[in-house]
């Protein structure tokens, strides 16, 4: 499908399907804590806000961790990553993300390279305490045992909100067959809000859900190399309005061989 058609469809979705989000998060109040550096790396252990007046950089794995820790991202905020140390944002079990973009001001995770390419960004991962079937003992691609656990017994768990977000050029290989997707949701509960998200030209899956009970709607996977929507570990939420566009020239040949060449 030509780029023109893609933009037309996205425009129609934005005008006919998207409903406006609350503007409560548009402004920073006097109690907001903003990181002192625009480069984010390592563990974030206290609540912070990424403001839209700066361009933020994810460097390597960035862990938001702690039961009282919330990462808030303002509408219109841009977050970039460089290929040499592709950034992965991980909201660990118990922490929260409040990323409420709007149709007019989406939150964008993208490449910081002059010539963007899939794999420049790692991806976005959210973990919660909802139930699953135990097929995976830890998150894919997250090798640090301090931060890679997920799931529990609380299907009403709340990991925050993800709304009006675009994730571009994602995909990071931690080990052979151990990769980060555009948006990965691990044991995320139904108290979490998830809607109006696009994953564009991801090197691996667009969306992958590992267990959990959250509901989601208005999800777009555009020209991702592997699965557009992948489900593991007994995901049991409700989904509406999912759209997939494929690019025949951009596919994960390794996985294609594994699925169709083996007896």
UniProtKB/TrEMBL annotation:
Record bears the keyword Signal: yes
Domain of life per record: Bacteria
Keywords: Signal
Keyword Signal attributed: yes
Name of this chain's protein: T9SS C-terminal target domain-containing protein
Annotated source species: Mucilaginibacter terrae
Signal peptide: 1-23
